Amino acid sequence: MKRNLAYVLLLMLVAVASCSFTNKTFENDDKDKLLLDLITYVLEKGHYEPKALNDEFSVNVFEDFIDVIDPTKRYFMASDIAEFEKYKYQIDDEIKNTDITFFNVVYERLMQRMGDAKDIYKEVLETPFNYADNESISIKYEEEPFAANRDELKERWRKQLKYATLGTYDSKIVHMENKDIESTDEHDHEAHSLEEAELDSRQSTEATLDEFFDFVDDLERKDWFVQYINTIVDEFDPHTFYFAPEEKEKFDTSMSGKFEGIGARLQKKSEGAKIVEIISGGPVWRDQRLEVGDEIIKVGQNGEEPINIVGMRLDDAIKLIKGAQGTIVDLTVRKVDGSLDVVSLTRDVVELEESYAKSANIIKGQEKFGIINLPKFYVDFNDYNERNAATDVAKEVERLKEEGMEGLILDLRDNGGGSLKTVVEMAGLFIKDGPIVQVRSKGDGKEVYDDKDERIQWDGPLVILVNELSASASEILAAAMQDYKRAIVIGSKQTFGKGTVQNVIPLNNMLRNNDHGDLGAIKITTQKFYRINGGSTQLEGVKSDIIVPDRYSYIDLGERDQSNPLGWDKITPADYKSWGGYIDYEKTIADSKRRMEASQQIKLIEENAKWLKAEQDETEISLNFETYKEEKEKDKEQSDYFKRLTDYDSKLTFKSLGYEEQLFTKDSVLREKRDRWHKNLAKDVYVEEAVNVLEDLKLNTIKQGKLASVKN
């Protein structure tokens, strides 16, 4: 039976928030304890796969909370951890009894150790660093033990600060050796000797730490308690998350369609904040110097001394990075290839216009194909008919058909998902009717969501492009088209692997009376979705029909690299029939494989991917300046070598559609965006191979006498 997805989700949310949770009264004068009680109850009753609160759960919370607040192990000592150990198997009991003793003990000790750290880093930075010493530092902090005493802790700080200062020292030496080249940084004061360069570098590092600890001093106890709550919540799965009131407001703002910042989504890593998504049209996207995988390690404000964010909470780092439109932020970045760079960006209002579907004509000789890029499955939940991904893609398909399209590429690379309803409608553009996805809620049987509309918007050759960052709704669409044998899926070995659905529940709705103000909200995993063949996309993602290597082929990305992901499983398949079309999988894949084996660009991409993996696996870093320079030069040579990847020319021509050409006369920014997109597409070997596959599919169509037609 066809379902109204938005209505079903709304009913489920109301049921979760209103019915299931009305049989318990929440009253507590302590706001922290009330919050803990509310959240754990919601998780128990509403989460798709609630965790048992037992000793194993307790140990995980214990270890993860310590790692969250001291990831580089430069605050706590081994004696502190030994003292905390008595709570290691009691946290589950504390949660059940609404007790926060463990948090209080750890928090009070952390405040003490951070006070000690201020003295330690001052002592360390009083003594010059000897860059001639042959010593190294391991940045695989999770494998390092906690310091046994203050001397060991001070030595850890010394190595970490020497490592943090090494890049600054190098830049000052380079500046000193190139005095004839005017500095582009007015705050990078010129050093006249090695001694001065070393002193200036230490002073710069000290200033950065002073600012960092000033920032930490402004944090309140409630900020640290939120970290503790989210450590508990994160044990359930990586997409369940507690929003404090301020963060809930930011979440609502992001859902509304615009925000002020740099236009990048970040993930916490021990070495800084990793860029995991670049928002089209934003400052990072326009600047083009940053890419997914780069790690931000320092943040400065318009030329001021930057603050080191290594070890900082992600939320706090984001507060430094975000800011008002028109202000400048200076980001010190460790690139994917290991090199360091400082990128200054002007913050802007990030419009989601570039998150909407866009299309282009692809000209190859006398043939014309179409490409539609869909960055996300967007929808206005307040007014579905206002604008949504399915309707927009349908419009673009129609426009491309009018201009003579002979085959279609749907580009879902980097598409992190979105509205489930739009997936069902969009899949229906390419098949007559039938099931698209299966959804299962906690303790319930499955629900099958069908396309009931027998109209087909496009029944010609279809290729879907995916990569490791294609997730959720993207995986539903790709999986459905693959199961129907309606399209050829080209891309990475597998997609992201997120097969779960979340809902946001405001916690104030749980209380009849509330004297504590806004309590925020919890985003909770409530459902799992499955392919029509019965298999889950969770962890395994969608495996491409034609696998094309990319620079992330050997780097762990996706759901399997997240903390505490739900497992893979399968259910009974839906009732569906394969597309009775023209796809000869074996021959299409064989022909594609033969082309890729002969492609020098593909070989270079594969070589680059292996080098990036080797660089990422290098966790022992030399603190000897000469060795550092040698490694830096080698990395630069390799980085320059792989820049040839951007010189590739597929010889394909890309042109905007007629309606956009008319818009360009009034919108020069849109013209610039499309020109840049077309330029990048012409260098894209994956799009080139997709066109080759479309040609094969077109030939098969003609051979089988099934010319593409349109049913209106």
Keyword list:
globular, alpha+beta, 7-stranded mixed beta sheet, 712 residues, disordered C terminus, disordered N terminus, 6-stranded antiparallel beta sheet, 21 helices, 2-enoyl-CoA Hydratase, Chain A, domain 1, Pdz3 Domain
Q: What is the SS-derived class?
A: alpha+beta
The CA-CA distance between the termini, in Å, is: 24 Å
* Quaternary state of the chains: single chain
- What is the CATH class name of the largest domain? Alpha Beta
| Percentage of residues in DSSP E strands | 15-25%
The CATH architecture of the largest domain: Alpha-Beta Complex
The number of distinct helices, counting runs of at least 4 residues, comes to 21
User: How many β-strand stretches?
Assistant: 22
Radius of gyration, Cα only, in angstroms?
27 Å
Number of domains: 3
Q: What profile does the largest beta sheet have?
A: 7 strands, mixed
Strand order, sheet with most strands: 20-17-16-13-12-11-22
- For this structure, the CATH topology of the largest domain is 2-enoyl-CoA Hydratase, Chain A, domain 1
What's the topology here?
Blueprint: H1 5-19, H2 31-46, H3 55-69, H4 78-84, H5 91-96, H6 101-124, E1 136-138, H7 150-177, H8 194-217, H9 221-234, E2 241-243, H10 245-256, E3 258-261, E4 264-269, E5 272-278, H11 283-287, E6 295-301, E7 307-308, H12 314-321, E8 328-334, E9 340-346, E10 348-351, E11 358-364, E12 367-373, H13 389-402, E13 408-411, H14 420-427, E14 434-441, E15 446-451, E16 462-466, H15 473-483, E17 488-491, E18 500-506, E19 521-530, E20 546-547, H16 585-597, H17 600-617, E21 620-622, H18 625-642, E22 653-655, H19 658-664, H20 668-682, H21 685-703
Parallel strand pairs: 12-13, 13-16, 16-17, 17-20
Antiparallel strand pairs: 1-21, 2-19, 3-10, 4-5, 5-6, 6-7, 6-8, 8-9, 11-12, 11-22, 14-15, 14-19, 18-19
Helix pairs in contact: 2-9, 3-9, 6-8, 7-8, 13-14, 14-15, 16-21, 19-20
